[in-house]
Specification:
heterodimer, A: about 375 residues, mainly alpha, ABC transporter involved in vitamin B12 uptake, BtuC, two-stranded antiparallel sheet, 14 helices, B: about 350 residues
Chain lengths: ~375, ~350
């Protein structure tokens, strides 16, 4: 009798597990759990956080977790914009890396001849934001009004972007020596948590509020699922797509500010290289369809942190930075295979078989 | 009534140009645009930039430089026609170069086994990517993105630094020149210099012709278009959609590995930075050649002219004296933009008729 009860319990437990795997946030949470467990078993010191002082005598937190929070910031901000673009237009913007170079270049161009004051930095950021929103709008117009596939339309800026960035500064590399400018990418004296984390947090809060109090999320999902039926319901699909690209442009400007602030200068051909691929990956790891439609912003953001978690873990185990992509690729393939609907169906069918078998045996 | 019938009977065999254009299939229309633009561009280069472009060797050098890109672009077109994409071809080329280079110089292998290694990489990539895309229904972009990352990392795992291959057999193959009769020119000392192409060009032309025939006249080739145009309808017509997609990715990877070997023969070295961004150039060439990412539309001949147009515009830019690297990128991007807009307008008009 007791045996029967226990098998029944395990059966229902398995069923809940199977039901859980169908949820969208299952993959990112499972991936995060596996990574955390792996690090706990291999070396628990991974999670140690130390409060030390930097060369200026200011208190700073250090440790792998802080590195993750710090370095994932750019990816988180980009993932926000990329999720919206993916949802509305059913494609991805591969020009974000190049546009980050442009935004960074604009900021440096404006600041290198001016004193570093709050007003000037604000002015530089605003100009960079406008410039990258214009480039975003360029992509958006090609996608929304000329009906070109997003990846191809953004291929134009992907090719030309870094060249335009170099052209803005006449191919020179301006360096800003004022330590105030480095606050955005490093630490503000007295605050031990890196600034990029706060910037990312602010962006996340803003987008949460926007999604909660405006129709942006609803409209972009409607347009992504079926443009013609949303048009019949009074939504202009082209306009919604254009707006998502402009929002991504704004995200790019914020990332550009962080990127140039981190090193106080810019390298046109290296800055934010391949970040577009990581941003798209973040969206995909979050369980969002790259074909557009429904999205879950929280899982995209979690996807961004997972990518950084993975990168930092690999770094900790002394994987060469050049060889890193190979390991990343293997993990990505495992994750996407596990999250593929075909595989999930097969897995749940397999679970059912196992549970029914065990139930029969018990009987 | 009779008069009307007679009129249509007279006009039917000779429709007006506009009508003929309107009745063309998307594939042929885009192909015509590409070839026209290429010819116009080359003619204007000859007219305005002088005799440099008139020499046959100038044209053959474009082929020599871009033989690998032609092959990679053809591979890309294949998957794009079926509605997929493969962005791993560029870094796969680097992986092929590095593996072959290490095999030839450090492991004492010969050219034939090096070629086998290249093909093995291609087959391996094709199997994995094809299976994931076709049978597990994972988005091709993500699959090939992982493939791209993998090749990038694997190249540096094989060998992290650049080195030139010194294998004698390979050097002989690399420097082999095939002279084209009747196209040579005399230099200012009056010595006749025959025009030549490298072996890679012959391979590239064979690939172009082979794939052109394959896509136009074989059953599998036609089903590529059907699957890319509308997979559900293709399935109703009795086409094995999964097998077709798998074949497309398999062919793409294998042909790309041949392209990688041709690239290796051209540069003669292994380096992690080889063929950087080649996947994007291949996509751009396919687009200029009239292949559409949405699938179902495209032509290998167009892709061939797409590569030629892309490299001709690069040559024109450097001949005009804009030597800074950024001008090339900006012109290429502008050209891509122009072509995309033309295509989108042309296709919109057709659907509105």
């Amino acid at each position: 009798m007791t045996q029967k009860v226990s098998t029944k319990k395990s059966g229902s437990f398995l069923e809940t597990v199977v039901a859980l795997t169908r949820k969208q946030f299952f993959i990112p949470i499972a991936a995060l759990t596996i990574l955390v467990l792996f690090n706990l078993i291999m070396d628990p010191s991974f999670f140690a956080i130390k409060l030390g002082t930097n060369s200026n005598g200011d208190p700073v937190l250090s440790g792998y977790l802080i590195t993750i929070l710090n370095n994932a910031s750019e990816l988180v901000i980009l993932a926000i914009g990329m999720t919206l673009v993916t949802s509305a237009s059913g494609g991805q913007d591969i020009s974000v890396g190049s546009t980050i170079a442009i935004a960074g270049s604009v900021i440096l161009r404006i600041l290198c001849n001016r004193p570093i004051t709050v007003a000037n930095m604000l002015f530089a950021f605003l100009v960079a934001a406008i410039v990258s929103m214009i480039f975003g709008a360029f992509n958006g117009v090609l996608v929304a009004y000329f009906k070109i596939q997003p990846m191809i339309a953004t291929l134009i800026l992907f090719t030309a972007g870094r060249s335009i960035a170099a052209w803005i500064n006449n191919n020179t590399l301006p360096v800003i020596n004022d330590p105030t400018f480095a606050y955005f990418g490093n630490f503000i004296p007295g605050i031990p948590v890196p600034t990029p984390f706060f910037i990312a947090a602010i962006c996340v809060i803003i987008i949460t509020l926007v999604l909660k109090f405006t129709t942006l999320g609803l409209y972009s999902q409607a347009v992504g699922i079926n443009p013609s039926s949303s048009r019949l319901n009074g939504i202009d699909p082209a306009k919604v797509k254009l707006i998502t690209y402009i929002i991504l442009g704004l995200c790019v400007a914020v990332v550009g500010l962080i990127k140039v602030s981190r090193i106080s200068t810019i390298n046109y051909s290296v800055v934010a290289k391949d970040i577009e691929m990581d941003a798209i990956l973040a969206v995909a790891l979050g369980g969002n369809s790259l074909g557009g439609g429904k999205f879950n912003m929280a899982s995209s953001i979690m996807g961004a942190y997972i990518i950084q978690f993975l990168t930092t873990t690999l770094f900790k185990f002394k994987v060469e930075s050049t060889a890193l992509p190979a390991y990343k690729a293997i993990v990505v393939i495992i994750l996407v295979v596990l999250s593929a609907p075909v595989v999930r169906e097969k897995m749940s069918a397999f679970w059912k078989k196992v549970t029914s078998k065990s139930a029969k045996e018990a009987a | 009534m009779a008069k009307n019938a007679k009129a249509t009977a007279v006009t039917a065999p000779k429709p007006s140009l506009a009508k003929r254009v309107r009745n063309m299939s998307d594939t042929n229309l885009l192909l015509t645009i590409t070839i026209t633009v290429f010819v116009l561009m080359y003619l204007s280069a000859i007219l305005f930039l002088g005799s440099g472009f008139l020499k046959p060797q100038m044209f053959l050098n474009i082929l020599n430089e871009n033989a690998a890109l032609i092959i990679l672009s053809c591979a890309m077109s294949l998957v794009m026609i079926t509605g997929g994409i493969d962005i791993s071809v560029g870094t796969m080329t680097a992986l092929v170069c590095m593996s072959c280079a290490v095999h030839l110089d450090y492991k004492g292998g010969n050219v034939f086994t090096a070629l086998l290694i290249a093909l093995a990489i291609g087959v391996g990539y094709g199997l994995v990517q094809g299976y994931l895309v076709a049978y597990l229904n994972i988005q091709p972009f993500i699959v090939s993105l992982a493939g791209m990352f993998f090749a990038k990392g694997a190249t540096t795992i094989v060998n992290a630094t650049q080195f030139n291959v010194e294998n004698a057999q390979f050097q002989a193959l690399k420097s082999k020149r095939i002279y084209v009769p009747g196209l040579g020119s005399t230099n200012k000392h009056g010595i006749y210099i025959p025009a030549y192409v490298e072996i890679g060009v012959i391979v590239a032309l064979l690939v172009v012709i082979g794939l052109f025939v394959f896509l136009r006249w074989t059953k599998m080739g036609r089903s590529f278009y059907a699957v890319g145009g509308n997979a559900a309808n293709a399935s109703l017509l009795g086409i094995n959609v999964k097998l077709t997609k798998f074949t497309a990715h398999m062919m793409c990877s294998v042909i790309a590995s041949i392209g990688g070997f041709v690239y290796f023969m051209h540069v003669g070295s292994g380096s992690p930075s080889h063929a950087a961004g080649a996947e994007m150039n291949a996509i751009a060439s396919s687009i200029i050649g009239g292949t559409m990412l949405s699938g179902g539309v495209g032509n290998i001949a167009g892709t061939f002219f797409g590569v030629l147009s892309l490299s001709t515009i690069k040559n024109i830019v450097s001949a005009l004296g804009f030597d800074e690297a950024w001008w090339t990128n900006i012109t290429v991007a502008a050209m891509l933009c122009l072509f995309l807009v033309i295509q989108s307008i042309v296709l919109k008009r057709k659907t509105n008729k």
